[in-house]
Design a protein that fits this description.
The chain has 247 residues and is an alpha/beta fold. Helices cover 37% and strands 20% of the residues. It contains 9 helices and 7 strands. The chain has a 7-stranded mixed β-sheet, with helices on both faces. Helix 4 links the parallel strand 2 and strand 3. The longest helix is centred in the last third of the chain and has 20 residues.
Length: 247
C-alpha cells in the first residue's frame, strides 16, 4: 500500500473530529468547479475516492441528480447517513465501497473520478493517481485536489504540528511533478494549478498553546486582508493544488 497512514489512524481521526454533519453550503470548496465539470461533460455518475464522510457525493446526488459512489478505506455508516439526512436526501442514496484502493478491482466505470486530500498521503504518487484512472470511463474526467504545504501554510504545519505534517508526502505537492505523472499515464487535457486565496489552518487547533492560536489568527487576518487587495493564486499563499484531466 505504501501509505503514510493506516486504518487505525483513520479510525482515530474520524472519532476525534466534531462537526462532521451539516448542510453542505454552496460555497463549500471546489463545488463551483465540480458543477462545471459535471455539466460541461454530461457526467452521469461520479466516484469519490477517499472522501469520507462523502460531502461531494452527497452534494452531487442532491443537486445534480446523478449516481454517486464513495470509496474509502474506512466508512462509518452512521456518519454518512446523518450527513444524507442533514442534506435532505434518503438514507442510502450514496453508494459505498469500503475497501483498500490498492487491493480493489473495479466493477464499474465512472464519468468522473475525484479525490480531495488523498494522494498526498502516499509516497508513490504515480501509483495512487493510476489507481484513480482505472475507474475512468472512456473520455472520463479526473479531478484531484490536494493541500499545498510548500508555502506558508506548510510552514505552520511543519512548525506547530509536525506529526500531521509528516503524514503528508510533501514531494507530491509540485505542479511540474504532477503534470508529468498525468501525461506519462496517458491522460489528456491535463491542467495542474494552485487554487484558492490565502488560507491557514492547523489540525486540532484547540490543543495548541494559546500563543500559537493567537499567532495563527493574527497571521491569517493580516494576509487575508492582503489577499483581498491582491487576489492571485501562488505557491506561497494558495492552500490547494488542483489536477484535472481526461482519460
Amino acid at each position: 500500500m505504501n501509505g503514510l497512514t493506516d486504518k487505525e489512524f483513520w479510525l482515530n481521526y474520524w472519532e476525534s473530529k466534531t462537526g462532521l454533519v451539516f448542510s453542505i453550503p454552496d460555497n463549500y470548496p471546489f463545488l463551483s468547479l465540480l458543477k462545471k465539470l459535471i455539466t460541461t461533460n454530461r457526467v452521469r455518475n461520479l466516484l469519490e475516492i477517499g472522501g469520507f464522510p462523502g460531502y461531494y457525493s452527497v452534494w452531487a446526488f442532491k443537486n445534480i441528480k446523478i449516481k454517486t459512489d464513495l470509496l474509502d478505506f474506512v466508512i462509518h455508516p452512521k456518519i454518512l447517513h446523518d450527513l444524507e439526512k442533514a442534506n435532505q436526501i434518503q438514507e442510502g442514496s450514496v453508494g459505498t465501497i469500503e475497501a483498500d484502493l490498492f487491493n480493489y478491482t473495479p466493477v464499474g466505470k465512472y464519468d468522473l473520478v475525484m479525490s480531495n486530500g488523498l494522494i498526498e498521503h502516499f509516497q508513490n504518487t504515480t501509483e495512487i493517481i493510476q489507481k484513480h484512472t482505472q475507474f475512468l470511463s472512456e473520455n472520463g474526467i479526473l479531478f484531484i485536489s490536494l493541500p499545498n504545504f510548500k508555502g506558508l501554510n506548510g510552514w505552520f504545519q511543519k512548525t506547530f504540528d509536525r506529526d500531521n505534517y509528516d503524514k503528508h508526502y510533501i514531494e507530491s505537492m509540485d505542479l511540474v511533478y504532477l503534470r508529468n505523472i498525468c501525461q506519462n499515464l496517458g491522460l489528456k487535457d491535463v491542467e495542474v494549478y494552485y487554487s484558492g486565496r490565502f488560507m491557514l489552518w492547523l489540525e486540532n487547533e484547540g490543543k495548541q498553546p494559546a500563543w500559537v492560536r493567537v499567532f495563527r489568527k493574527s497571521t491569517w487576518f493580516i494576509l487575508k486582508v492582503f489577499s483581498k487587495f491582491f487576489p492571485f493564486e501562488t505557491k506561497a499563499l494558495s492552500p490547494y493544488i488542483v489536477i484535472t484531466a481526461r482519460a
